[in-house]
Every structure is written in C-alpha cells, then in structure tokens.
Write a structure and sequence with these properties.
The chain is an alpha/beta fold and 371 residues long. The protein has 16 helices and 13 strands. Helix 1 packs across helix 16, helix 4 packs parallel to helix 5 and helix 9 packs parallel to helix 10.
C-alpha cells in the first residue's frame, strides 16, 4: 500500500486537491492521507464538506492578523510532528501558497519525497504575485516529481534545470473539480442571484483581492468598472467581496449607489462555480479563475499587469488589462460592445486540459512508486 499524504491549507488549494484525494482513494494499492493546515479556516472547511473529505490531521493554524512568518513557522513545526508519527511514502503539495512551500520543506527535512501539483507556473517577477511566485519556485527545488498543467509549465521547469524524466504534463485538476460541480438546475442559496436576469443582461462577475492591487490600483480598477456599468444599461456586476476590510472599503467607495452592482458575501465553491457558468464574462486578479472560466466558455479580463498563465493569453481565452483606469475600461468595453471579439474569446480552446488531470497524476504516481 502506497501511503500518499496530501497537504493543503487554503480554499483554492482544497478545490484543486479535492478531486485528487478522491482519485487516490479509488485507486487500488494507494491510501490518501489528508493533512490540512487551515491557513484559511472557514473557506477551507466549506470545500472539505462539499467534497466529503475528512482530514486525518488538522493543524488549525489560522489566527487573526497572522503573518507569513507565523504561517511558515506553524506549518514547519506542526507538520514535523505529523511526518515523524505517520511517515508517508509521498507528500503532495499544490501550487504556490505559504502552506505549499512550508510543507515541502518539512517533508524535505524528513527525507520524504515531494510531488508538486500545478508545478511550473511562473510570472517572472518574484514580487508579483507576492509571495506566490517565490513559493512555487522554491517548491520546485524541493520536489521529486512535478505535475505540470501545460506545455508552457513544462518548458519553465526544463529551463530551470529540472530533469524531463520527473516532469509530467497532466492538465489542471481544477477542471476536474469544476466538472463535478456544474448543474444546469442549480439554485443559489443567495436569493439575490436567483433574481438576476442572466439571459438578457450582460452580467459580469468580478473577484479582486491581490495584495499588490490594494490601494490606488484597485481604486482605478473599480472606478473603470463602475463607469462601464453606468455607461451600458444592459450590464450588471456581481462582486463576492473578499473578507479583507481594505478591499471592502474601496468597493463600497466606488460601487455604492448603483442598483446593477451587487456586492455580496464570498460564495461556497459550488455556488461560485455555477455562478461562473451563468455570467457573460469574468474580471479577476485570481490565477485559478483564468483556468476555470475558459472551460465554461467565459472570456476573462485579468486585472493584473502580468500572468503566470500565458497559455490562456496565447489561446485567446484571457486578456490582460493591467490595473490602469483607461486600460481596464477599454477591455471591458470591447467585450461588452464587440460581439465578434466576445465570441472569439468564448469559443477559444481551453489550454488547461479536459478534466482528466487527477487520473493522469495517479497513473504517474503508480508508475513511479508502485509498478
């Protein structure tokens, strides 16, 4: 029996690791051991409940005002005790969170091989996104096997000297998760969402939370969006507001008073996935949504100056607007008014796979560690 420990701590990690947990549980000869750090708490628990995952270990680290150092130290020490007691054969981490880096380092200290899921993402700027770019670069140095979503991710790893024999291109597990969630008859618990006319209104969905966008950049982004909604009466915006009070303050400053801008609380993953499926287009500074939305045929406007997902840009499913008022306004306006441009983006082929990433990852693990 190959004992595989999966460590994650945030909602985005949980969403992308949950279908992999299930795939390993189904695989003969493998045991899935789940350890959560609770770098996030409430949002993480929502995903665990949704996918019916019961962690064997819960470090329960989240506390008010926690710093990156607090999380790093907490994961290192908490996971040290777990790894000494349980001694898995392989430890899987995902992506680029502080949990990811710290768990990979803790496993390295115990000489336990690390598998890095969603490996090879790079923006080329160690401070954007911060601290994620450095987290994933360092995780790559600690990993024994790399599960890259795209050919571009593979190329990044090869360029950094990773041996091709320990890299597998698998697609992205978020597509697996997304396919498990979407239902045409889905009814939202947030009653407002059931009242919106998705068929006749050009409804935009936005997420915004990046540290580097806080302050003037976010204010410019929100000002551009407000003007677009005011200018085009057939548009509307839904903004599930991040819990960060600084984000909420800027949102209320620029969006209050417009009846077609709906500020709502963060949504559970299932609801958010189905909301993505209903809207016309998506505005985001999130990385994961750049992968999810193309699978649903939804154009994405990236509210950042760069992306570590250039495949989406190359495929035409994503456009980088930056954070300037004029740039953001221009890209939104074009998608609202230029139907040919909209159709070209919505019909572009999703570069992140077909929803079989977990199956492919399990196959690689079997070949490398069991067969």
């Amino acid at each position: 029996m190959l004992r595989v420990m999966l460590v994650f701590g945030t909602r985005p990690e949980a969403i992308k690791m949950a279908p992999l947990v299930k795939a390993i549980e189904r695989e003969p000869g493998m045991e899935a051991i789940v350890c959560v750090t609770a770098q996030h708490r409430e949002m993480l628990d929502q995903v665990l409940t949704l996918f019916d995952i019961k962690p064997k270990y819960d470090l329960n680290l989240m506390k008010a005002g926690q710093s990156l150092s607090d999380i790093t130290a907490g994961v290192l020490k908490g996971l040290e005790d777990v790894l000494i007691a349980d001694r898995p054969d392989l430890l899987l981490v995902h992506g680029d969170t502080t949990t990811t880096l710290s768990a990979a380092l803790a496993a390295f200290y115990q000489q336990i091989p690390v598998g890095h899921v969603e490996a090879g993402l790079r923006s080329g700027n160690i401070y954007s996104p911060y601290p994620e770019e450095m987290n994933r670069m360092l995780a790559s140095k600690l990993a024994a096997v790399h599960f890259a979503a795209t050919e571009g991710n593979v190329d990044n790893l090869l360029h950094e000297g990773v041996d091709a024999s320990v890299i597998a291109k698998t697609g992205n597990t978020v597509i697996d998760a997304l396919k498990m969630m979407i239902r045409s008859d889905y009814v939202f618990e947030t009653s407002l969402l059931n009242q919106i006319d998705f068929e006749h209104q050009k409804v935009m969905l936005m997420t915004a939370h990046r540290r580097e966008n806080l302050g003037e950049p976010m204010a410019d982004i929100f000002r551009a969006i407000r003007e677009a909604v005011d200018t085009y009466p057939d548009t509307a915006l839904i903004f599930p507001m991040h819990l960060n009070p600084n984000v909420r303050k800027i949102a209320k400053t620029h969006f209050d008073g417009c009846e077609r801008i709906h500020l709502i609380e963060p949504l559970p993953y299932e609801a958010f996935a189905n909301l993505q499926n209903r809207v016309k287009l998506i505005l985001t500074d999130s990385g994961g949504i750049q992968e999810e939305a193309p699978a649903l045929g939804k154009p994405v406007v990236v509210l950042r100056t760069e992306t570590e997902r250039p495949e989406a840009v190359d495929a035409g499913t994503v456009v980088i607007a930056g954070v300037g008022y004029e740039d953001v306004k221009r890209e939104i306006t074009r998608l609202i008014t230029d139907e040919a441009h909209y159709q070209a983006m919505s019909e572009a082929v999703n570069p992140y796979g077909d929803g079989t990433a977990c199956e492919q990852i399990v196959k690689v693990i079997r070949q490398k560690y069991l067969d």
